[in-house]
């Protein structure tokens, strides 16, 4: 899933690269398939900590892409960048979700 999102971001920032001229309908199809398949691949017994670690890692990966792609000379044709307030809202929501999913350390009875 992360590779598909990375591909879509690179395509958005550098549409002139050969092999990245797939078109917007392919991007919509990939997102739709990812969305539909996420419900089938979710493991019901998966613990909260591993979900939080996955969310944290994927968030840092996407942030790194949003920093590196403009530095490499790309410009988003769809407005996906760190200057977009919606991106910051999504990052805040993700941070809250990670905070909720991380297990809290229990204090000792003597403390």
Automatic annotation (TrEMBL):
Keywords: Membrane, Transmembrane, Transmembrane helix. This is Uncharacterized protein. The chain crosses the membrane at residues 20-40, 52-72, 78-98. It comes from the Bacteria.
